[in-house]
Specification:
Layout (H helix, E strand, L loop, with lengths): L6 H9 L5 E3 L1 H8 L6 E5 L3 H10 L3 E6 L4 E5 L4 E6 L1 E4 L9 E4 L3 H6 L9 E3 L4 E3 L4 H7 L1 E2 L5 H7 L2 H13 L2 E2 L1 H9 L9 H12 L1 H5 L4 H11 L2 H5 L1 H4 L15 H11 L5 H6 L3 H9 L5 H15 L4 H13 L10 H10 L4 H16 L6 H16 L24 H14 L6 H15 L1
Parallel strand pairs: 2-5, 10-11
Antiparallel strand pairs: 1-2, 1-8, 3-4, 4-5, 6-7, 8-9
């Protein structure tokens, strides 16, 4: 048996007087030897009929959409989405079909899907795989072909452009030339897709390697977005760096390829920031002929990109800070006190910043050795920890109440910041007695 079917689902299939199929990704993944957990179901039966049957079998039906033939239900452990066999008509690249008609023909249902490898069915009752369009061969060859003419498939639904890149990255599949050219000819259709959906697909793509353990699958997916020109529409600020040369003594790759390779080598926690870390380079170069200041411009542009894609606000703020800080001490010549102050200022994103620095370093010449700046910073940070240096005002051994009477209320915050700065430079000063004496001297000096 190809799929291990949950007991209640098997009972539902047995009770039905029509064939009930698992369709799409679970079948493909099982054939590839990948784990699967989602069960998309299909049958030549109307939604209300399936919903009633599911209720009789003890499932909780969450919602039924008769217009699209869709039923969402659960057994408490697994979630299921059922769709009646149907044919779809789209409107100019929009994701949702404009018109749906139902059919009893499994081949017609298969043809409405995007790729042959996703147009596979598993008959639960019979325990057999049904392959209307030749998807088994594509799965065996790890190839992606569209269910119909590629130009037609991609022109219907712009989101398929990103699904192609993501699924190739997740599964280690390679699209056929016809598939690539069909996507390339319809790249502009991505503009018909809502920003939230683009962001969701991009996020999954940035973690494509994690789904089935395909090494660098996320990078392969990004390269496919680049090769099909979709990247030019979703991230034009980055795409502008395609072919933009950099200093050969520091870089083996152009600006865009460097950014993609930064994602390739990045820890999963910072891949979005790694993708955008040099977003300011094309802008600066086209404006001044130099890359100077691209970190500050990149922070501005990165914010514009993430707000356009409607990314979560907290994530946006973190990414913007990482972009703005990624160039600090690039040559390793910053003095220790300045590095100490920088570490304290960025203590809340420090670990993430190290990951971005490493990804940036590795992407320059595909060098996986530890970035020298990281070694320097970590040695300084260890000294700060050993000394008891504060990283926040909460770490300071005195507080605002201790300074009452020494300073006017409006000056207490400024005094604490001065004392903290001194302790950041020298952690041995972070002792209550020493701080109170330093506060008295500071107050006397100001008076």
């Amino acid at each position: 048996m190809l799929l291990t079917i949950p007991e209640k689902l098997a009972a539902l299939a047995e009770k039905a007087d029509f064939p009930l199929y698992v369709a799409g990704g679970a079948v493909r993944d099982a054939l590839c030897g990948f784990p699967y957990s989602d069960f998309d179901l299909a049958a030549p039966a109307p939604a209300d009929r399936l919903a009633a049957l599911a209720s009789e079998c003890g499932f909780r039906v969450n919602c039924t959409y008769k217009n699209t033939g869709t039923v969402n239900f659960t057994d408490g452990r697994y979630k299921y989405e059922f769709t009646s066999f149907r044919k779809d008509v789209y409107r100019g690249g929009e994701h949702a079909p404009a018109n749906v008609t139902f059919t009893d023909d499994i081949e017609e249902d298969a043809k409405r899907r995007d790729f042959k490898c996703n147009a596979l069915y598993y008959d639960i009752k019979k325990g057999e795989t049904v392959d209307p369009l030749g998807g088994l061969e594509d799965v065996r060859d790890r190839t992606v072909n569209t269910t119909r003419d590629a130009d037609e498939v991609f022109s219907e639904d712009g989101l398929r452009l990103m699904r192609l890149a993501r699924q190739c990255g997740e599964n280690g599949f390679t699209p056929s030339l016809a598939c690539i050219f069909g996507a390339k000819f319809n790249a502009e259709r991505i503009q018909k897709i809502a920003p939230e959906r683009i962001y969701a697909e991009l996020t999954m793509l940035l973690h494509a390697d994690e789904k089935h353990g395909i090494r660098y699958g996320h990078y392969d997916g990004l390269e496919l977005l680049k090769g099909t020109d979709v990247l030019r529409y979703i991230l034009p600020e980055l795409a502008a760096g395609d072919g933009m040369a950099q200093r050969r003594d520091f870089h083996d790759h152009d600006v865009l390829e460097h950014s993609l390779r930064a994602v390739k080598y990045a820890d999963g926690r910072v891949r979005l920031a790694a993708l955008l870390h040099d977003a300011g380079k094309p802008y600066c170069f086209l404006k001044t002929g130099r890359f100077h200041g691209h970190d500050a411009e990149g922070a501005r542009i990165g914010r514009e990109i993430l707000e356009r894609l409607k990314a979560p606000k907290k994530l946006t703020e973190t990414c913007v800070r990482l972009i703005g800080a990624h160039m600090y001490d690039l040559d390793g010549k910053a003095k220790e006190n300045k590095v100490r102050a920088f570490i304290a200022k960025n203590h809340d994103i420090y670990d993430l910043l190290l990951l971005v620095k490493q990804a940036d370093y590795s992407a320059c010449k595909d060098d996986l050795n530890v970035c020298p700046t990281i070694t320097k910073w970590e040695n300084i940070r260890k000294k700060m920890l050993a000394e008891g240096a504060p990283f926040t005002l909460k770490d300071l051994k005195i507080g605002g109440n201790d300074l009452k009477g020494m300073f006017p209320p409006e000056k207490i915050g400024e005094a604490l910041a001065t004392l903290m700065r001194e302790c950041v430079y020298d952690g041995s000063k972070n002792e209550r007695g020493k701080l109170l004496e330093a506060a008295k001297r500071l107050a006397a000096k100001e008076n």
